[in-house]
């Protein structure tokens, strides 16, 4: 089963072309040009031009605080990796590309946040004027949204991994992934952590990171050792560590998303351990 899935994934990745970068680059350029025409390329103007939209979306979406809290945490790398932990056994190629893509996304997030240094909503607006769900974030690292990068990096890798052959199926799957991704990243506006452009830019960068991860792994094969059972203890140890980190988060935030992540990790640890013991 593993060989069959990996073969299918490798075939799908051969269909990934450089032209896939055209749309995200066009969207990023369009956003920059729009901000330029509105004289909003500086941090203060960037925030002010989105003020009304941010307040509107925040007020509407925050009416479901428990739901938005859980959706927001899907952009936590711990959560994303937990839900995909079983792929180590059944489709290790996914993890190979996901790791490369995630590292690219992390680099983009760190560098761009430092370059733009846009203050968070709670650092600019009176917190009585909008809803904050969970922890209040006040730093100058709003653009781009790191959670949005993680969400769309992960979704892009999965989308290109399991892209169907028929055009109608491709349209349906792409539409589903796009809608799902937007629902997840809009939660960052709902909890009062980001402005709309933060999540849009973060989502586009996430898509680019997913593509770059696939291209990098095709060229350099950095993570081929993942497919070797003798390295399963590395993942067992990593997943156990992730369990403790998620338990810590669950104790402090008490969100269902962490409980589900923990269940996924425990099941994956058991399955990987059984397979490793049988080798």
Automatic annotation (TrEMBL):
User: Its domain of life?
Assistant: Bacteria
Keyword Oxidoreductase (UniProt): no
Q: How does it sit in the membrane?
A: Multi-pass membrane protein
Gene3D superfamilies (alphabetical): Phosphatidic acid phosphatase type 2/haloperoxidase
Which spans are transmembrane here?
Answer: 20-37, 74-91, 98-116, 171-191, 197-218, 230-248, 254-277
Keyword annotations of the record: Cell membrane, Hydrolase, Membrane, Transmembrane, Transmembrane helix
Q: Which compartment or compartments is the protein found in?
A: Cell membrane
Main location (coarse class): membrane
Residues in Phosphatidic acid phosphatase type 2/haloperoxidase domain copies: 97-214
Q: Which SUPFAM superfamilies match?
A: Acid phosphatase/Vanadium-dependent haloperoxidase
State the InterPro entries in the record: PAP2/HPO (IPR000326), PAP2/HPO_sf (IPR036938)
CDD domains associated with the record: PAP2_like
Kindly provide the name given to this protein in its UniProt entry: Phosphatase PAP2 family protein
Question: What organism is this sequence from?
Answer: Flavobacterium cupriresistens
